[in-house]
Amino acid sequence: MDWPHDPDGEQGSEGMRQYGHAVLAKKIDEEEDFPLSAADYVEQYGDHPIRIDYETVVSVEEIFEGVETEEFADFVEFHQELGRAMRENGYWFYEGPEGFVDGPA
User: Fold this and answer.
1) What is the pTM assigned to this prediction?
2) Which InterPro entries does its entry note (predicted)?
């Protein structure tokens, strides 16, 4: 797919390789953008690339296909709904520290 910018370039990762949820959150201003319409967010950023892992890049629009909330009241609600949608649709691979250790410390 032809992206409007490189997902690993300055616009896509703000100078560092960032993935999924972090990139989505950086596109909004917590103080000024709420309440936030999901449709308006997709209209503005839908064709932007989001790196999911080291080999997968999808569009904002693809991620939002699993979002059920039409409007987010605040940053917390945005994070919670995006996290839920990403997990349910295979766009979230981190499942906590338990996946990296062999039992309790």
Assistant:
1) 0.77
2) DUF5785
